[in-house]
TrEMBL record:
Belongs to the class-V pyridoxal-phosphate-dependent aminotransferase family. GO terms for biological process: glycine biosynthetic process, by transamination of glyoxylate. One of its GO terms (molecular function) is L-serine-pyruvate transaminase activity. Substrate binds at residue 341. It comes from Ruegeria marisrubri. Keywords: Aminotransferase, Pyridoxal phosphate, Transferase. Coiled coil: none annotated. The lineage of its organism: Bacteria, Pseudomonadati, Pseudomonadota, Alphaproteobacteria, Rhodobacterales. PROSITE patterns: AA_TRANSFER_CLASS_5. The keyword Cell membrane does not apply. The keyword Cytoplasm does not apply. This is Serine--glyoxylate aminotransferase.
């Protein structure tokens, strides 16, 4: 693998030089007012990225998985029921975590490649007249399959049923890359991490809690210590943490939010969509299909590309690393060996994306697939030339 080449995995993503330098800072006293000048702007920046006016932002030294655990353990009690669809590896892992914590999970099995079945959620919620379901879990962007889901539709299902369940959203591979509307969608807990849309190294679990979720923390009885939001809030009030924070990463997060907001969130989302459309144009030119079943669920941060029956898609990833020093993502779970993934999120440009498309072409041709060199690159070039970046009104 070459440090000179960008990565095309769906996280960790490429790190802009300015953010790498922001993380590389001298030691400071993390219980001093100076630390507060890093911490509080970072939290406020995240709140803006979530498009929220009131979310309580908590940032733990962890990853998105720790964010999942934060959501569950602070708001729920053993034996509580949650509703979740399993449509990919990461929704599966969140379900597994719920079960390990003694929660009852009403699982809606969904084909890998499809989005969350909001219509089925609506039926289940309407039938739950006793309101036993305490939380609905929703994976906004399923990283294993390249599928996005309609979180607004899940909120509509809750509202139509008049159901009081909380809405927990995994936005690990969507937040800061794809449009996310915490307040408008009535999200109660949003979970993400530092290593994807925020373009930082892994190491921070970033969560937003609504007022309703904060109220639930007073009744939830699942054990929590490291991820206790009340301990964290008490520390924040004194410009501190209840333990040692990842100061450099927090400084990087502060700068990352500044970069995103200066670019303009709508411009960030448009850039991701444009790059993703170029990749999808290449996939069509290759004569291959995406794992995502139709354009309504195409992810703008990762494309999972199906290879022909009998071909091991993992060979493309291995070959790219060994011969060309480039990283793509392997298939996971039910699609292992059936897809390879091109991550197109974070610090990425049209030109960088073209290098990844060209490398994928070379690998497939090397491995004997019927791929014409230059076909996908040309299709992506045509798209990028015809769809230049446009500045949106919210850009700074």
């Amino acid at each position: 693998m070459s440090f000179q080449n960008p990565v095309f995995i769906p996280g960790p993503t490429n790190i802009p030089e300015s953010l790498r330098k922001a993380c590389d800072m001298p030691t400071i006293d993390h219980r001093s007012p100076l630390f507060g000048q890093i911490l509080h702007p970072a939290r406020e920046g995240v709140r803006k990225v979530l498009k929220s006016d009131s979310a309580e932002i908590f940032i733990f030294p962890s990853t998105g998985t720790g964010g999942w655990e934060t959501a569950l353990t602070n708001t729920l009690s053993a034996g509580d029921t949650v509703l979740a669809a399993r449509n990919g590896m990461f929704s599966h892992r969140w379900i597994d975590m719920c079960q390990r914590h003694g929660l009852k999970v009403d699982i809606v099995e969904t084909a890998w490649g499809e989005g969350l079945p909001a219509d089925r959620y609506a039926e289940i919620l309407a039938a739950d007249t006793a309101h036993e379901i305490r939380a609905v879990l929703a994976t906004h962007n399923e990283t294993a399959t390249g599928v996005k889901s309609d979180i607004a539709a899940v909120r509509r299902a809750l509202d139509a049923a008049g159901h009081p369940a909380m809405l927990f959203v995994d936005g690990v591979s969507s937040i800061a890359s794809m449009d996310f509307r915490f307040d408008e969608w009535g999200v109660d807990v949003a979970v993400t991490g530092s290593q994807k849309g925020f373009m930082l190294p892994a190491g921070l679990a970033i969560v937003g809690f609504s007022r309703k979720a904060m109220d639930a923390t007073r009744t939830g009885t699942l054990p929590r210590t490291f991820f206790d939001v009340h301990d964290m809030a008490k520390g924040y009030a004194s410009n501190a943490y209840p333990y040692t924070p990842a100061v450099g990463l927090l400084n990087g997060l502060n700068q990352a939010c500044d970069l995103l907001l200066r670019e303009g969130l709508e411009n960030v989302f448009a850039r991701h969509h444009r790059i993703a459309e170029g990749v999808r144009a290449a996939v069509r030119a290759w004569g291959l299909d995406l794992c995502a079943v139709d354009p309504s669920v195409y992810s703008d941060t990762v494309s999972a590309i199906r290879t022909p029956e009998g071909f091991n898609a993992t060979d493309i990833v291995t070959h790219a690393a060994e011969k060309y020093g480039v990283a793509f993502g392997v298939g996971l779970g039910e699609v292992a060996g059936k897809v390879f993934r091109i991550g197109h999120l974070g610090s990425l440009t049209d030109v960088m994306a073209l290098s990844g498309i060209a490398t994928a072409e070379m690998c497939m041709a090397d491995l004997g697939l019927d791929i014409k060199l230059g076909s996908g690159v040309a299709a992506a070039q045509d798209y990028y030339r015809g769809h230049p970046a446009e500045a949106h009104k919210d850009a700074a």
